[in-house]
Amino acid sequence: MWWLEGFRSGMGRLEILLLVYTLLCSLGDCLFVTDYFTRTPRKLNAYRSFASVELFHFNVPEDTVVAVWNLITFKEQGGTFGDSCPDRNVTVYFRSGAPPVINPLQTRFPKDTIVPGSFAVTLTWTLPNRTTGVFNVTSPLPGDWFLAAHLPKDEGKISVKGLHEECQYLFQPQLIVQRLIGISVLYPGYFIDQMIPLHNRSVLYKVFIPNYISRVKVQLVDCNTKNRSGESCPVLLKIRSRAPPVHNSSAMDCRENVPCELEVPLPSWEQWYYILVERYLSSSDVYFRIGIQVKDCSKPSVSKGSSAMNMPQSFGTAMGFSLSETLPAASLPNVPQNGSDQGSLLTAEDSITYLAPTADTNKCWPIRPTLRNELDTFSVHFYIFFGPNISIPPDRAAIFAINLMPVLDSGGVLNMELKLNVSSVRGENITIFGCLNHGMPMSLHDNTSVSCESESVSGFHLSINTTANITKLRIPYPQTGTWYLSLRSLCATEHGFEMCTNVTAEVYLRSYLTPCINDCGTYGQCKLLRTNNYLYAACECKAGWDGWGCTDNTEAYSYGFQLLSTLLLCLSNLMFVPPVTIAIRSHYLLEASVYIFTMFFSTFYHACDQPGIVVFCIMEYDVLQFCDFLGSLMSVWVTVIAMARLKSIIKQVLYLLGAMALSMALQLDRHGLWNLLGPSLFALGIMAIAWTVRTIRRRRCYPPTWKRWVFFLFPGTTIATSAVALYAFVETEENYFYIHSIWHMLIAGSVGFLLPPRAKPDVKVTPLKRRRGCGYQLCVNEHEEMGLVDPAIITINSICTS
């Protein structure tokens, strides 16, 4: 991985272009064009899984010499610059061909999983609210490039939405590419006269290599510093596939090698190869003749005139064309040709000479195509003709081609499964070796060992035998293009592996594409994600499980812990039983029904909301969540309205209006702060107005008794305030199960304290007959109103004379 620590903060676009121009001036006459790409800024998240990563997709054109990514990160808080936000490092990953497979938490990958490499850049803050980093790639591979950015993992605090202005970290990548135009194209077998002028440092060529080419050789002949002289050749020859050569590409110093030849075994098929001829310091022009020699390993008798799809031994047009089909010599008239099988060079007065390609003695084995069957997004099966059971002969390899569509297939997981039919080997100690390579197949001609790597090709190794007859291979986010699976059977002896005799092994082969590895297992959820027009899938783990396929149980919750957390969250709702009993005894039937509704749906919502396997859902999750939230808010609403001691008809109207308003608010934003705070403040306002009116009319504080304040209102308010503080400031993902259980108990307990006593009965007393201006006034004892005496006893505490 490549790391960059806050490189050149604030570097502008002009400085970047000057840097690019300096890098390019060594390539010929600096004939290039500039392309500029940018993406919309996105909010970064703390890393939990790849589902929390922000993914950006770019496309690098062909013939690009340098690509420069300008990485801009800035802070925002409440719509303004977040100068007070803490500095958090931003990590950016780069990968060509497919999204990067990252592991910042160092978790374990699932078994038999291949982890492709990628680069990483860490950006540190150099200004209070903004930082800029530059990441340049010399001669990048063309096609799809992906950037994945995230923040470090946080403590998992659960914050209430809208409680405070959240610090947001926004990331915006920009791409500037410089690509050469007018690169000279070479053709295999043709030699042309070239020169490097004194004012140029190098010259760049490219040649297209079709299918069934086993070897590519670049030849530099007749090299001199003066026209037709015999001096040494002061140039360096480099070659690379798909992009112009870089410092570590295959190279040959032509000063020490005459003739100068650079050979590439096992080249990638259907790709452009770039050849750079770079001069050493010299005071004169350099003249040379350059040509490309290839070895064609195709079988004309098989590749021509046979069926392309229905015969397993045919190459098939789906795999492209061989050299003899793409560049026939007859199509290029007036070119001298060499009919010699050895391929010796023919010189002519013309500047172009043709040299026929030589045949490779090690023929390419026939490649069997596969049939693509798309079932769903990232659900593709590759069927083999006359399969899935395949026969592997003892004398040669069996090769299969799997074609992954560009962009469409790189966001899933490529799976390979091999199973040896032990009965087919007839007791022989046989081992099936396999190589999975991208771009071209491995030849596997060696009868003693199997290697899936060479100087220019790297692949993945598989093996099965009579003891371990099953093997699997998974590649998350595979590169698109053609993958080749080569299978070879060898028999184990005392002296190592040897070619088997008269034993044809039968192997069951299954190849398919899935969204996630094993559908993320029991403790994960496979999510289909989208960035602009690109789709990809990722696992989101739960119950403490981690890893790319949710298979790392290092911090996983045990079954007992899951059961305990579920029981705590569910049974803590039984604390609503005392408030329900008090409400029924005090004839608050509407309030009691709301508490029962809240207790029921909160219990079953938390039983369904558990991350592990201790889950029980009586209906859809979204319905349970809505009813739980609605019941919680309605419990607060009806309790505070009941404390206001309004007339029955007014109270019922407010209950109905509150239920409709809260339902609408929850549908708009279920997790917003004002869903809880708004109704609570409005209800408290109504209660305050009602209490103030009573205080003014009676000319004394309401409620009038100190016992009501000390033993009911103050404890209830304290308990409710403590519950809100725990919910808003203490609750995290780790302590959620017991902090939220305490929240349930505190809220239910506060309702039991705050619910007012039974309202006085609506009794009308018939006035006594008035005697000469005297009468009686029936007064209600204040102790009875506060629920401190038996309400059935009516006392007269004053007799008034009128």
UniProtKB/TrEMBL annotation:
Transmembrane segments: 674-697, 709-730, 736-755
Membrane disposition: Multi-pass membrane protein
Record bears the keyword Transmembrane: yes
Recorded GO CC terms: plasma membrane
Localization annotation: Cell membrane
Residues in EGF-like domain copies: 539-550
Keywords, alphabetical: Cell membrane, Membrane, Transmembrane, Transmembrane helix
Domain of life: Eukaryota
Any Pfam family: DUF3522
Similarity section: Belongs to the TMEM8 family.
Name of the featured protein: EGF-like domain-containing protein
Organism name: Onychostoma macrolepis
